[in-house]
Amino acid sequence: MRIGLVCYPTYGGSGVVATELGKNLARRGHEVHFIAYALPYRLSEYYENVFYHEVKVLDYPLFEYPPYSLALASKMAEIARYQNLDLFHVHYAIPHAISAYLAKEMIKDHHPIKIITTLHGTDITLVGKDQSFLEVTRFSIEKSDAVTAVSRYLRDKTIEFFNIEKNIDVIYNFIEEQPEQRKKCDELRQRIAPNGEKIISHLSNFRPVKRVEDVIGVAYKVLQEMPVKVMMIGDGPERSKAEARARELNIAEHVQFLGKQDNVYLLLSLSDVFIMPSSLESFGLAALEAMVCGIPCITSNAGGLVELVREGISGFTTEVGDVNKMAEHTLRLLKNPKLHIKLAQSTREYALANFHVDQIIPQYIELYERTINLNQT
Ligand code: GMT
User: Fold this and answer.
1) How many separate domains does the chain show?
2) Are 65 and 211 in a shared domain?
3) 148 touches ligand 1 (CB under 6 Å)
4) Is the domain of 194 the same as that of 160?
5) What is the C-alpha separation between 300 and 279, in angstroms, rounded?
6) 277 CB less than 6 Å from ligand 1?
7) What are the start-end ranges of the H helices in 2-130?
8) Is the pLDDT of residue 91 over 50?
9) Of 6, 122, 125, 152, which is best to mutate to test ligand 1, by the most ligand atoms within 8 angstroms of its C-beta?
10) Domain of 134: which CATH number?
11) Secondary structure letter of residue 66 according to DSSP
């Protein structure tokens, strides 16, 4: 198949899923054309069967808001025609699904093409639900030839918010087995925790939904009982507040804000516990990435996280904002090596058994084939 993949190319779960999906499809012999405003950040090398098409928006003084959606639609139509695409697979509904619809309409007489939209979370739960985007989100979902959501939670919320009758397939986020990083880890671990402290980590884009201050709250409570080091990986609008909170609590010397990092698997592999206290999470890819490194996760029970974290097997969940309980679970794991070893193993096994790339990619391929064979609507 020849597939046009559209995504946000910067740091963020939806872009990571789209990029890894594209690379895996290409490895299986499909031709993949990424269409985005910048090179997706996990696509920096050459991959056979993978092509990248950059969307440029004309900068003209009249445009207070340069119309990216239109430039994208135009590029999508061009690539579909000249690269003979079979389908568009757009990640994150806004504005990608409506640009896809426009592109499809533009070329339908000479190059009919199908649209698959994958909903990732905030495109529905925050942005798409906003009055300013509600109608266009509903319309673009209805007009997609197939729609997927990354959890049952997200599927159900989408149907409820938008009163949608169309079928939405649930296809979970996926991971690949990570090579053993022990040697590199030992050296780096020594630098981060020179006195043999345990390491707690968090990885996100530091948006308000991530509740990064709760991670600092957990660290504070844990530090009352034992020495730990905390790695805060990523960057975003809430970072300064979290840094200030760590200073206020007088724990700044134990908390390192590492900013955006490329090799997240290496950093996650160093940790003993991963914390994700989000107020909303349609799936929680970062937690899955920690799991495959054998790191037990303490997360909130928001949204799709309960479909990912299996109590006592891959970690523990708590109510959103229950910092005390999160600290309790963290301490229990950090103070009990037997329990920690058991969970580290079951976490990894559970992640690989349920979310391995070889299980998930065929679900997308099957959906592509089914959608391409649908009668033209
Ligand atoms: O988590 C973010 O803020 C980034 C966001 C995105 O769209 O890039 O992530 C969403 O998609 C990921 C991949 O499907 C999911 O694993 C995340 O749970 C989801 N984030 C939220 O729902 C907040």
Assistant:
1) 2
2) no
3) no
4) no
5) 7
6) no
7) 13-27, 68-82, 93-107, 122-125
8) yes
9) 122
10) 3.40.50.2000
11) -
